[in-house]
Amino acid sequence: MKGAGMTFRFGVRERLLLAFLAICMFSLVGAASGIFSLSQVGRSFSRITEERVPQALSWLELSRQAERVVRAAPALLLVTTEDARVKVSAEIEVETELLNKRLTDIRRYTAGDQMGSDASVQHLVAQLNGNLVDLNDLVRRRLVVAERKAGLIRQLAQVNIVALRMFTPGERILEAQIAEWNRAKDGMGSNQLSAERSSAAKSIIDMIPQQNAGAQIETAHNILLKIAEADKPSEIDVLVFPLRKSLTTLSDISKGVPDNIKKRITQQVDLFESLTVGPNSIAQVRRDELAIIEQVKGLLAVNAQLSGDLTKTVNSLVADANADIVKAGIQASAVQILNRNVLFGVVILSLLSSILIVWLYVGRNLIHRLTALSDSMLAVAGGDLRAPLPVPTGGDEIGRMAEALIVFRDTAIEVKNSNLQEIEGARRRLIDAIENSSEGFAFYDAQDRLVICNTRYRELLYPGIPLALEPGMEFATIIRRAAESGLIVGAEGRIDEWVKERLTIHRDPGKPRLQQRRDGRWILITERRTGDGGTVAIYSDITDLKQREEELVKKSNALEQLSNQLAKYLSPQVYDSIFSGKQEVKLVSQRKRLTVFFSDLAGFTETTERLESEDLTRLLNHYLTEMSQIAFAHGGTIDKFVGDAILIFFGDPETRGIKEDAVACVKMAIAMRKRMKELEGVWRASGLENPLRCRIGINTGVCTVGNFGSENRMDYTIIGSGVNLAARLETACTPSEILLSYETHAHIKDEIYCEEQSQIKIKGIANPVVTYRVVDLYENLGKDNQIIHTKLPHFQVDADITLMSAEERREATAVLRKLAKRFSNGRAKV
User: Fold this and answer.
1) Is 391 helix (H, G, I), strand (E, B) or coil?
2) What are residue 535's phi and psi, to 5 degrees?
3) Which among 83, 265, 287, 691 is least surrounded, fewest beta carbons within 10 Å?
4) How far apart are CA 707 and CA 789, in angstroms?
5) CB-CB contact of 336 with 37 (8 Å)
6) Half-sphere exposure (CA, 13 Å, Cβ side) for 734?
7) What angle do CA 120, 121, 124 make, to 5 degrees?
8) Which of 444, 439, 434 lies closest to 474 in space, CA to CA?
9) What is the pTM (predicted TM-score) of this model?
10) What per-residue confidence (pLDDT) applies to 1?
């Protein structure tokens, strides 16, 4: 159109905008249809997702939570202590709170027509909560009754023990008299023998009532224990009848016993009576406990019924919600079908209009001009600044782009000329920089051809050889010339293999590498890949550093060899503390509580007389090596070897605590004893008739530990009364045994089984010392207990089968058979 003397033309933007507005009209119609459909579908799905689905899920969660509460309730029936009841009750209370919370959440989704079902569910939940409170109260009462029953059972045990003690002494006296009569029968006359028999017979007659009373007491005790564990009240009534009979018999017997014990026996009979009948009797308490248990089981059954009713109600509500969901889905599908047809028509109209716009305007006008402009721009971008450019026409955006391209081409020509000058200057500066470097520098392109290098690179690569390096030479050719000239030590006699290895490293460089040259120089080669696939190489002469390193390695090896030799004269802990700087080598000492170990070999002097010196040395070294390995494994500090004797202590220079040190020491001694048993077979096989057996003494006490001696010669050792006591215990010990002091036993008694021995008198100590014999670790005894220990008033057995030799076992078997035969003969004569 015309106006004000100028012509207004639509540009590409305005033309496309008009076309797109026409298409958008169709899109708006489709969008309106879609919005209407989505609003209808959204309304349906909102009711489903915001009301019915959450409501159904909440009902299901409520049902599951009620089932969890009902399943958790029986755990109260199994508790045996008040703390356990409180813990289980708290867990059930948490589940109950979750159940009530679920019920509160459901009320938000409950409509008016569902209020009746909601009230029914609330009633069931309230009844379930009340039953749980009653159940908790019943369990509390049952625990109180169970505690009363336990107290009565303890009282019963005490009454039974006291009653039996009144009768058993008389029986023991009678047995002693008969045994004495049997031993003396051969040395007495007939009259005296008759008198002894008469006295024994009278004693037997007097003791018969007491023996019967003991039997009745045992019977009453057993019946009361059965009543305490009865499962039904009827079982208690059945057991009470023989119990009353036993108590009646016991009452009659108590009237005929001697007057000096009649009053005490009558008191015990009365105590049995009080435990049998009355409100505080064991029978009545057990009846109360069974009654409470029945009430608890009844409440659990009611809870299970309530859970079933609640599940049925919830299933009905969920079914109603599912029906609403299906109905809403049908309505949404109908709306979607209508909207789909409308959108289909809008899409067809939009496609037809788009095709017309593309064919009439975009294809015939815009694409042709843009293609010509694109070809010219690609030519300029490829470096052809003299390529023909399209003539600006049309006066629209494409015409202005053509004008801009012409200006850009002219500017690019000027910039190119300026850049060429700057690049040449930068190249000259780079060459000057690398030439002045003290390191060899070279750059290879992606095809491993030399681009640039400095003079230092050629000097390090070909020292003393007039070989030229020119840009464009391949890396493989350059390094092969150096290898063939004999300059590389690693390439001598294997040039092809070396060149192949060097090329592999060059193409995948890693850490810097050292290269040894024939003239004794060492070259450090550092290579890195560049972003364009090339490689930068830096060659550094580190011959001086390598020579210093070799000298340092030689000195370090000498020091290490000397250190390893010195370590054989010190305990590992002492050696580590000295060489790590934790301990200074000077005359200092300190008082510490240590666990001291002494051992020596029994009969070693006799063994030395039967063996040659070489065999004796080999045997002793074998023994000391085995024991040292065990000591090191347990963390012991070996003080010294004195012939066949070994002194070890725990607690310095490193300690794990007094108790832990004592336990580690005794465990070490047990391991040594076990190893000695294994070595007996080895030494017998080697010709040693009487294998060595060690004695071990262990004491825990305050000792002085540190360096003793002079400034020029000192010894790391321990002294003090604690050391002397350990040595005395070892002397007092029998072969193959471990003897402990009281303080050591106090630290290890929880982990290691020991037996108390008789007190011994030790030189230098005023009072006798209590000692303990080590048996074994409790964990070992639990696996295979070979220890027999029985102690009666007139009979005692204390045997460790694992430590007995074959000869000792044969002698023990003979003694036991002889003792059994005497027991059999004694019963027959009595």
Assistant:
1) coil
2) -135, 130
3) 83
4) 46
5) yes
6) 7
7) 90
8) 444
9) 0.35
10) 42
CA distance 748 to 745: 5
Give the C-alpha separation, 488 to 471, whole Å: 23
| CB half-sphere exposure, 28, CA atoms < 13 A | 6
Tokens (6 digits) for 291: 């009654």
Burial profile 716-744: b = 16 or more Cβ within 10 angstroms, e = fewer: bbbebebbbbbbbbbebbeebbbbbbebb
DSSP letters along 619-666, please? HHHHHHHHHHHHHHHTT-EEEEEETTEEEEEESSSS-S-HHHHHHHHH
Which of 624, 623, 621, 655 minimizes the C-alpha distance to 638? 624
Residues in the chain: 830
- At residue 830, the pLDDT reads 36
3-class DSSP state of 108: coil
Does residue 321 surpass a pLDDT of 90? no
825 vs 675: which has the higher pLDDT: 675
CATH H-level superfamily of 437-544:
PAS domain (3.30.450.20)
**Token pair for 423:** 């690049």
The residues facing 602 across adjacent strands are: 693
Give the pLDDT band (50/70/90) at residue 773.
very high
φ/ψ of 790, rounded to 5, equals -135, 135
Alpha helices (H) along 48-81: 53-72
**Residue 200 in tokens:** 């024994």
Supply the DSSP symbol for 130.
H
| The two structure tokens encoding residue 2 | 């015309």
Q: Where are the domains of the chain?
A: 146-293, 389-434, 437-544, 589-785
Residues 795-799 have a mean pLDDT of: 72
Is residue 673 very low, low, confident or very high in pLDDT (cuts 50, 70, 90)?
Answer: very high
- Parallel, antiparallel, or unpaired for β 6-7 and 513-516? unpaired
Could you report the per-residue pLDDT of 498-524, keeping only the tens digit for each? 889 888 888 888 888 888 888 878 888
Cα distances (angstroms) measured from residue 396 to each of 15, 177, 366, 369: 11, 141, 11, 11
**CATH code, 589-785:** 3.30.70.1230
Question: Does the N-terminal peptide bond of residue 653 adopt cis geometry, omega within 30 degrees of 0?
Answer: yes
Distance of CA 779 to the CA centre of its chain: 22
Report how far residue 400's alpha carbon sits from residue 411's, in angstroms, rounded to the nearest whole number: 17
